[in-house]
Design brief:
The complex is a heterodimer of chains A (325) and B (57). Helix content of chain A is 26%, strand content 23%. Chain A is α/β, with parallel strands linked by helices and 325 residues long. Chain B is built from one helix and two strands, in the order αββ. The N and C termini of chain B lie far apart (98 Å). The chains are: A alpha/beta (325), B mainly alpha (57). β1 of chain A pairs antiparallel with β2 of chain B.
């Protein structure tokens, strides 16, 4: 009898009989070995502004070579990219793009970073890791855009090669993670702390979904956890929900809810709290936590003004954390 | 009676248009624009897994 294989990449720990795939749909047991079905086979490749990740404290106004494969280890009801994340690799149109070609294309297109994004890059771990190693050798920054539902061992192996992570902290209760994403909260919090301890620059995004995670208490608890475990300098983006996938019946997040969430974050003591998916909201801008002056003015993904010089506020010299050059 | 026969000149004109179209499609095929997308998954041995015959207990 051929051995059962247990995948230890994420916290699902899928146990697979011969020919079975994990919950991610892209890892398969063949002859007692686990294989990735998506290595070097992205289904989405784009050049995005880095602000789209969203990363507001990393190389502003630069281009990021962004890619994803099919599949995901989560089942978020609100997924914005469900067409690829909830598909088999046989159902998407894939291209051949080995790690060397990803780096070459990124350099050729004047990108300063490579973003592993759209679906969750945890599921194309081997492809991401090999590409990240090459990218780092070539002076590119690696962006891990993830829900951070990943085991400690693979994460620690990855950390030396990724400089920045844009992490979806989807909620702050186990119930929310279980019902909304078919995942667990605790491993996500642990992974975020590990990345922070390993020196990876982190920005967090919380998608505020009406009636699901928009209570002031939940938002306050989320901000408090960030402050106590990561410190006040980790940027937090409250992002507007748009009706998608299995939540088409819900309305978009009202602007006042996001404004209130930002107020709660600032009141809790976080220095950089942003509002996303509302292009002209003042919460798109970066302000100096010391003198309150406007540092970076943004409309959508465009930068209209930048008053950060060598990582410092132009007006009072306060250090603004991030990767600025 | 008005017959709508194709003249030699008209025929050559049409042939020219067809040939231009034919070579345009051929050229685009060479560039992979019309070629079928590669949807076959790859196979790369994964990291971070264990087999039942290697597990303790």
């Amino acid at each position: 009898m051929l051995p059962i294989v247990e995948c230890r990449l994420c916290h699902h720990h899928c146990r697979l009989n011969e020919g079975e795939r994990g919950q991610c749909r892209v890892r398969i047991n063949l002859d007692g070995k686990l294989f990735s079905l998506v290595y070097g086979k992205p289904c989405s490749v784009h050049i995005d502004p880095i602000e789209k990740k969203p990363l507001y404290h990393v190389l502003p106004a630069s281009a990021s070579f962004s890619l994803a494969t099919a599949g995901c280890n989560l089942r978020c009801k609100f997924c914005q990219n469900w067409q690829i994340s909830q598909s088999l690799p046989e159902e998407t149109e894939n291209i051949e793009l080995p790690p060397e070609s990803v780096v070459q294309e990124a350099l050729k297109n004047h990108c300063r970073s490579i973003a592993y994004t759209y679906s969750d890059p945890v599921i194309f771990y081997e492809y991401m890791l090999d590409t990240a190693k090459l990218a780092k050798q070539n002076g590119l920054i690696n962006i891990f855009r993830t829900a951070a539902f990943i085991e400690e061992e693979p994460l620690l192996e990855l950390c030396p090669f990724i400089q920045t992570a844009s992490v979806d902290l989807k909620g702050i209760t186990e119930e929310y993670y279980e019902k909304m994403c078919a995942a667990k909260l605790e491993p996500v919090l642990k992974a975020i702390k590990i990345m922070h301890q390993q020196g990876v620059w982190i920005e967090l995004t919380n998608l505020v979904v009406p009636t699901w995670n928009d209570r002031e208490k939940d938002i306050g608890d989320l901000c408090l956890w960030i402050k106590e475990n990561l410190g006040p300098d980790v940027p937090l983006h409250f992002s507007r929900f748009w009706p998608m996938h299995q939540l088409k019946s819900l309305p978009p997040t009202p602007e006042k809810t996001l404004t209130r969430a930002r107020e709660i974050g600032l009141k809790e003591g976080l220095h950089y709290v942003y509002v996303g998916n509302i292009p002209e909201h003042e919460g798109n801008n970066t302000y100096c936590p010391k003198d309150g002056k406007l540092l970076i003015r943004r409309i959508g993904y465009s930068i209209l003004e930048n008053n950060i010089i060598d990582g410092q506020c132009k007006f009072c010299g306060t250090n603004i954390p991030g990767l600025w050059a | 009676m008005n017959k709508n026969n194709l003249s030699r000149r008209g025929f050559l004109k049409l042939l020219g248009i067809y040939l231009v179209g034919f070579f345009a499609i051929l050229w685009q095929n060479i560039n992979g624009i019309f070629s079928p997308k590669n949807t076959q998954p790859s196979l790369k041995e994964a990291k971070h897994y264990s087999r039942s015959d290697e597990m303790a207990g």
